[in-house]
Amino acid sequence: MAASSVRSAMWRNGKARVGLVLAGLFLLMAVVGPLVAGDPLAFVGVPHDAPSAVHWLGTTGQGQDVLAQTLVGAGPTLLVALLTGALTVGIGALIGGLAGFLGGRVDDGLSLLMNVFLVMPGLPLMVVLAAWLPTGPVTMVLVLSLTGWAWHARVIRAQSLALRRRDFVVAALMSGERPLRVLVVEVLPNMASLLASSFVGATTYAVGAQVGLEFLGLGDVGAVTWGTNLYWAANDSALLTGAWWTFVPTGLSVALVGFGLTLIGFGLDEVTNPRLSSPRAPGLPVGQPPGSTPVVRRG
Fold it and tell me: Measured on CA atoms in the order 22, 25, 29, 30, is the torsion positive or negative?
């Protein structure tokens, strides 16, 4: 399916359209937010001041503007999530593609590596790596990518195994092209929908995992991100004091971004696999087209 037709089909799909609008709004927030918001670390009011005409979303436990922190925190959070999604899928495509395409001992060795990462508990590994490495956005991207690539590699390996016997791949190898070039030029482009879906899933995972690690204090607590906003709200006992406005805007933003990305993933799956969205008449077995006569099995 051509890229232009995929874009138009995505926009016609209801789930994808809602997801794209939500994701677009938050990307716009990430770009425009720092330009319109004041200094998110400036002390501008009374601590734990409720929302008012002066501070629309109230103030934090240190007297900082919650709206400014929510707007400014969108940029670093989404940037780390997008970079993590790209790096995760890149590692998965390289290792999974090589394993499935080359086969043999290469497949055995890389499959063993995938299995090791798949059986290791992800959350404890993330916590250990984030606590041991220096804090910062680069560390966050590396930690999330290293703990999340194996599942995508496993899926891409299976698809690579199915494509390596296709005529166009065999013809490219017979013409003398190097296997790595065939993988990059011939095989991976034919997985475009799978790679796109994997990127959306990896980005969704990165948003939640990043916010969770920063909430635990395993990020740069001096930076303004959605995760550190929740970290400082917890430190200020916002839940115990009833200062809901210090954590609800950030939590709602995280939930809406995850919801939007999930809808994009569902829409992408339905566009690239129309059978997922095709209606089925009541009473028809799965796989039987509408309008056909149900097959009655007699004992």
Answer: positive
